[in-house]
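[User] At your convenience, examine this fold.
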Amino acid sequence: MRSKLPGSKTSIFSVMSKLANDHNAINLSQGFPNFETDQKLKDLVTRAMNEGYNQYPPDIGVRELREQISLKIRSLYGKSYSPDKEITITSGATEALYAAITAFVHKDDEVIVLKPAYDTYEPTIKLSGGIPVQIQLKGDNYSVDWDEVKSAISSKTRMIIINTPHNPTGTILDKEDMLKLQEILSNTDIILLSDEVYEHLIFDSNEHQSASKFPDLSQRAIVCASFGKTFHNTGWKTGYCVAPEKLMQEIRKLHEVTVFSVNHPMQRAYAEYLKNADNYLGLAKFYQRKRDLFLNLIKDSRFTCTPSQGTYYQLLNFSEITREKDVIFAQKLVKENGLASIPVSVFNINEEDNRQLRFCFAKTDETLEKAAEILCKL
């Protein structure tokens, strides 16, 4: 049997979560909260079920939810998207990313991927016959070398993928970055795929620079988002994407034959929940407190770091503890100390090892305190 993804390995998230389960370890590896979603939101789902919203919704999503998304984006980023023609509800952001890549990438098309990168981008590109063109982010702050990006563009470049706030590094693209990208892509027909699932998790009074905010970028951008990441319910697998009508038409063709439609009662609940903007605008403060608590708890440890600018991940450098490879150190940390994290090298070009581990701080204070106690003993 010929594999379509020869050499593809089991996800590092699956590997480390299994290790955590096997060794009864504290799991700060996989990106999910270990606290409950808002009871009000759960009650809205129950109400929707009891009101009979248990059959297929419209394939593109419940209109009330698409309307609320349109209002939110216009309020935050000044861009108007048509609920009917430019917004589609998806089975999590991963399906949105899959549909966007699959709809536009053809055999031998090139797609620029900034590394480290979320591990679904490249397999999806390859499944479509495309060629990932990898560019490594630079330095301790994982900045983009825009000259290198510009040089990587060829007549075969079909798409470029960005992710801000960035998983796994916790960095963000600022306004200057987005303007440089806009200049590079001007006068091209290159599609921009912007993964913005952590848009509301951004710290220290910084502002999220959505591709939707920039006129030329927004005309070529597919923006993907996640309710699960936003509202602490990753298991509900509900997300969405927005794009100009000409792009969305093609995405919807893939969406229809992949999942057809998405969980109906959850959509009804989110539509109601989004009416109160405080439900998402307060998340930055909530998660910054988590980040600051975690960093304060480990301030006397031998780890070093730059505070995360966004997401709910924090990179810690362990160079002062051991010269072991990050994968080896991460495995020993689980087996010998009972704490699971993610080694960052697996996301880099040629598995470049900067001796960094990624820790998820979307956890209860008690969990963070227990994890910090382990880290401070190393």
User: Anything to note?
Assistant: The first helix runs from residue 12 to 22.
